């Protein structure tokens, strides 16, 4: 018997509880279960009215959207929209739901953790203790770190998460300035229209701008040069925002002091040159990955679909213009 539930396609794997709830509420099919996804889409793509995907994973490109001619709604697990072809969705009148705000705190927490880790060299110190090098007679003492309290923080992108990072930095008595295309009307911190000038001023440059074509390689060799040999880079936005080749050169040649990265240009590939360095901290894109935040993100994915299928609208709709 045909299901009366909306037919929804899931791209990539999600949390087990979320997959269960999606399957309970919809006539769900997982593309990851198909041996030949392209052949499946060609044969059965027209069945689906809904699509579930993730921001840091597969997204939804134009080819996928084209392969789903009956599609009416996309519900994405995450806030980044760089992997979703919003123009293709808009042309077809497809609604796009995402999960802003519910992850601000945990992403900002992780940005501060990375900043502290790279400045105070905590991962390196942990490796030093585990290797049994502490207290070894004649061995050099563990090198000194860089003070965080009272330092100058440059934030690239003062959006929902950027502001949340700024509020945390106030607790460390940091001086704050930010760069974005437009000044934020009610922000109490100075706006710096030139990213190079912000990098020159900052001790720590934290990148939390949106990803996508408009910000590709925003942090380039010139910005890293301006950050200088005493400056640290933290990236929790998208790997594409930083010119990774230029970053590797700057780190290897000690033209910046260090970097802490949650995201990479070609995830999950991390350049071997980065893995070989002590003055970098490398994480596998986990900024939103706490039980509490992933629960809230998953709930929003479900709520967006439920409201769309009940009333034709979303709890949190991505801007499509
Ligand atoms: P948001 O509120 O939309 O903020 C985005 C910021 O980027 C705005 O301040 C925007 O300011 C700035 N921006 C956009 N284009 C720019 C450009 N060309 N030059 C300079 N600044 C630019 O987004 P959010 O919720 O804070 O999230 C930010 C990003 O974090 C997401 O898009 C996502 O990629 C990333 N993220 C990563 C993780 C993770 O797991 N690592 C988790 C969540 C989010 P203007 O428009 O004025 O330029
Ligand atoms: C991912 C993220 O959604 O929200 C974003 O934009 O990058 C993350 O929260 C998460 O890693 C699942 O892909």
TrEMBL record:
Domain D-isomer specific 2-hydroxyacid dehydrogenase catalytic span(s) in chain numbering: 43-314
Q: Does the keyword NADP apply?
A: yes
Q: Which InterPro entries does its entry note? A: D-isomer_2-hydroxyacid_DH, D-isomer_2_OHA_DH_cat_dom, D-isomer_DH_CS1, D-isomer_DH_NAD-bd, NAD(P)-bd_dom_sf
Among Gene3D superfamilies, the record links this protein to:
NAD(P)-binding Rossmann-like Domain
Q: In the record, what terms sit under GO molecular function?
A: glyoxylate reductase (NADPH) activity; hydroxypyruvate reductase [NAD(P)H] activity; NAD binding
Query: Which PROSITE patterns does the UniProt entry name for this protein?
Result: D_2_HYDROXYACID_DH_1
SUPFAM superfamilies, A to Z: Formate/glycerate dehydrogenase catalytic domain-like (SSF52283), NAD(P)-binding Rossmann-fold domains (SSF51735)
Protein's recorded name: Putative D-isomer specific 2-hydroxyacid dehydrogenase
- Lineage of the native species? Bacteria, Pseudomonadati, Pseudomonadota, Betaproteobacteria, Burkholderiales
